[in-house]
Write a structure and sequence with these properties.
The complex is a heterodimer of chains A (about 220) and B (about 325).
Chain A (H helix, E strand, L loop, with lengths): L1 H24 L3 H26 L2 H29 L11 H22 L5 H23 L3 H21 L5 H29 L7 H5 L4
Helix pairs in contact in A: 1-2, 1-5, 2-3, 2-6, 3-6, 3-7, 4-5, 5-6, 6-7
Chain B lengths: L1 H34 L9 H11 L10 H20 L15 H21 L3 H32 L4 H10 L5 H17 L18 H4 L5 H26 L11 H28 L8 H23 L2
Helix pairs in contact in B: 1-3, 1-9, 1-10, 2-9, 3-4, 3-9, 4-5, 5-7, 5-11, 7-9, 7-11, 9-10
The chains are: A mainly alpha (about 220), B mainly alpha (about 325).
Chain lengths: ~220, ~325
Amino acid sequence: MELLTIDIAHVLAGALVLTSFMLLYQDRMSGLINIYTLHAIILSLSVAWQAYYQDAPHLYFTACIAAIFKALIIPFSLRSIMKRLRIHRTVEVVGGVGITMLIGIFLVALSLVVMLPATASADPLSREDIAFALAIVLLGLLMMVTRRNVVSQVIGFMSLENGLVLAAAGANGMPLVVEISVAFSILIAFIVIGIFLFRIRERFDNVDLSELDRVRGGRS
Amino acid sequence: MTLLFNLLAQSLQMLLVLALAPLLIGFIRKLKARLLRRKGPPIIQPWLDLIRLLRKEVVLAENASWLYRAAPYMIFAMIWVAASLVPTFATGLTFSWSADLIAIIALLGSARFFLALAGMDIGTSFGGIGSSREAMFGSLAEPAMMMIVFTVSFVAGTTQLSEIAAYMVANMELRASVGMALVALLIVAIAENGRIPVDNPATHLELTMVHEAMVLEYSGRYLALIELASALKLLLYLSLIACVFFPVGLASRDAGAEAMMIGLCAYVVKLAIGGGALALFETTTAKMRIFRVPDFLGAGLMLGLLATLLVFVTRSL
């Protein structure tokens, strides 16, 4: 029974890594948002499972926050933003999906190699979860680096934050105050990015971030 | 007496896969037609087609070599052997000592080799296009398949398919690495069988086709053999997924006839579920561009790599 519990936690964390890879692979805007929703749902399931395993009721609250904010509100508002910007049917040009995936595999390997020895004395359940969480954070960063469209960068940022929540849930005890403030700061960051999105759109007529380079006067 | 019983079970398995393969294709076609609110041909239609093809005369191009005529027999034999080595309703049948996963992949690889050669033999442009694309897909799908095999073999400690299935029956656990291997195997299976996001099995004379392009010049009994072989290949992948990842109801070694009957029923149910899922997936997705396929297969390869990595790391814990 003990083993099965740990296995389910690992499978959920592994599914989260898998969804991160799907985010890297997907180039359609609407598909991207659907996969992000899936990411958030798996995250809330994973946190709820941790709550059950650790017998920590406040983690259920975290799971609820993840489900409501990240799986309902953010995808919904992202969708409405994309409708208003009229980019909801765009297919983003991503150069070299194969190379990006290869770098992603390398990042997962790196986080496993780094985290497993570093947490040698920890609880067997949280060890692999923390390694997976680091992998999700790195994959989110990779997505922000490789994408040029603002909306996909926002999604990369949100998936990164999901990795942080997974790590915190596995780390046996995160104060509820921290959790709530993190959730709200993410929401505020989302609003700020949304406002920026419209400003960028107003000025440049598209949301391709490479346009910003011209303003900086750097590469063009 | 036990020897006789074992031989009987083994030959039952060989005939079973042969009989079920076209029925599976017919079932999937019927289901797809029903999902589009059409009536669809009866499930037995692929068998009727095959019988009709066997009766028809063979039309051969003038410059066809001996290879062109020998290839269908070789392809059919290889895939039939491979398909009957995969445990369907019971593990530990008489010939299961030879059912090594790597041997099965080698059989499928040689079948692909002969099919590609036969596609190029006559020298029509369609056959050449089909063969070159098949080679391109194969060069990505086979490494991915090897990665999946490594993952599963590391978990079970053997490459013997029958023993892997027995191990999976005995130790039913959830593992993140095996889950990733399953997703990778689904991707490889879709690509290898030319199902919808990769290739459209229902089309003829389209610039994107792969499998149909290679067999375009075949007719009569040769075409029947090749069609039967491709049906067997689909059945093989479904039974592989069923026996390694969902080994519920699989009869163990030395089990009696009763356990085998249960295994048989479970196998048919699993095939129906798998075929239904495939039909549903195919109706809801669109075919992807041909140059997008390497990305799709590359994702499968990456997942296989990731699964192998995960097994290595978690074993050293």
